[in-house]
């Protein structure tokens, strides 16, 4: 059980909600049907990230889930570019309590607590899928999530129902894990976090999120020209890439500097001890010519090697 109160949540209603977001976000929002969702990025005209976010088409509204510290800025931008579209914006961050349940028994545990339609088994819910349900007569929304590192479900309930949700999950054997363990799962899965492994200077291709976050078949969106130029004219080559690093010994690197042949060649963005691999691991940006798995590097005088992501495949 993972507390997700650090996420910001924006809801868009109105008949133009999907077409409005289609021109702003990198993924194909118009293609989403009720109960579907996607991962996307919001870019500047220069192709750099404003934020990454999760988009859920609930059927009567679209829910955006994004890093909490970016919510106010994104809400202001969405409002700024609204003109004659039939779109209504709402900040529902404080409306919901949010808990993620991850691990091999996540579907069983959630189905024991949340009543969902029988024709929609949670185990078959696709990535970013969503379904409405109930807990003790109170409405709930179940979202299929993978950004936690270990796949599972995020359950949204009214804040007044949070205690009932947590108590019911605990009765199913679901245990709460602390923030440091949440970070281990995320890094082991190679999931970049905004303002840790990506920021306002990052182009999505540098962070390696293009296959999940960018549609190559949709129409125009803000920043598309830069992305297409890199993909087509540059054959997807960028100056730096986010890679995985594994290290010898038992010391987790604290320095941000990655060196190769005695010269500084990049920076560590996230590092932790991997219990699954029994060794230190990190995410780091390195120049394109050092990004191949097997490349030897040094961080904090600790020898390491570039390693393919994810470090630990999802269960």
Name the strands of the widest sheet in spatial order.
Answer: 12-13-14-11-16-15
What form results from the Cα inertia axes? globular
Low-confidence stretches: none
Largest sheet: 6 strands, antiparallel
Structural class: alpha+beta
Mean pLDDT across the residues is: 95
CATH architecture of the domain at 96-171: 2-Layer Sandwich
CATH class of the domain at 96-171: Alpha Beta
- Strand-residue proportion: 25-35%
Number of distinct beta strands = 16
How would you name the CATH homologous superfamily of the domain at 96-171?
Probable tRNA modification gtpase trme, domain 1
Précis, in short:
Among the domains are: 76 residues, Gyrase A, domain 2 (2-Layer Sandwich); 76 residues, Aminomethyltransferase beta-barrel domains (Elongation Factor Tu (Ef-tu), domain 3, Beta Barrel).
Structural features, described:
This protein is of the alpha+beta class and 315 residues long. Among the domains are: 96-171, Gyrase A, domain 2 (2-Layer Sandwich), CATH 3.30.1360.120; 240-315, Elongation Factor Tu (Ef-tu), domain 3 (Beta Barrel). It contains 8 helices and 16 strands. The strands form 3 sheets. The protein has a 6-stranded antiparallel β-sheet with strand order 12-13-14-11-16-15. Strand 3 (37-43) and strand 4 form a beta hairpin. The longest helix has 10 residues, at 71-80. It starts with a strand and ends in an 8-residue tail after the last strand.
